[in-house]
Amino acid sequence: MRLRIELFVEDMDVSIGFYRDLLGFQVERRDEGYASLRQGQVVLGLGPVAKLPEQAEGQGFTRQRLSGDKGAGVEIVLELDDLDTLQTFYERCQHQATISEPLKLRHWGLHDFRLTDPDGYYLRLTHGNAAGQSW
Question: What SUPFAM superfamilies does its record include (predicted)?
């Protein structure tokens, strides 16, 4: 099993720039209605909110549904290999992104920081787990 997360965004160019230029993702595919980006084993799909239907029956994504807080209830956790890399990302993000919580050692043994992307999606960057293993 693998994971690819897809986010619906207001401005494809701004979001691609954020993930590519700030977080180091590589654009693997891009067309008018979709972009696929990769950083290591993380695959991120971006699609424009404007291509969604205004309203629909059922629980699918619509422009109306995403008009509120897009990322409510979701934390996207990106694990980096080591603390030095995390520190480098933090220094870069301080000047180019909205930091929600600064880099610090958490009581569970991990260093991390939290930020939001241009659409308000909540990201946590960390360096693995306290034992040095991936979760």
Answer: Glyoxalase/Bleomycin resistance protein/Dihydroxybiphenyl dioxygenase (SSF54593)
Could you tell me if 62 and 54 are in contact, meaning their C-beta atoms sit under 8 angstroms apart? Answer: yes
Residue type, 57: E
Is the pLDDT reported for residue 64 higher than 70? no
Query: Do the Cβ atoms of 110 and 126 come closer than 8 Å?
Result: yes
Domains and CATH numbers, the chain: 1-68 (3.10.180.10), 70-135 (3.30.720.110)
pLDDT at site 86: 94
C-alpha triplet 125, 70, 110: angle, nearest 5°: 20
Strands (E), 10-75: 26-31, 34-39, 42-48
State the pLDDT confidence band at 111, using cuts at 50, 70 and 90.
very high
Model confidence at 130: pLDDT above 80: no
Q: Report the alpha-carbon distance of residue 62 to residue 55 in Å, rounded.
A: 5
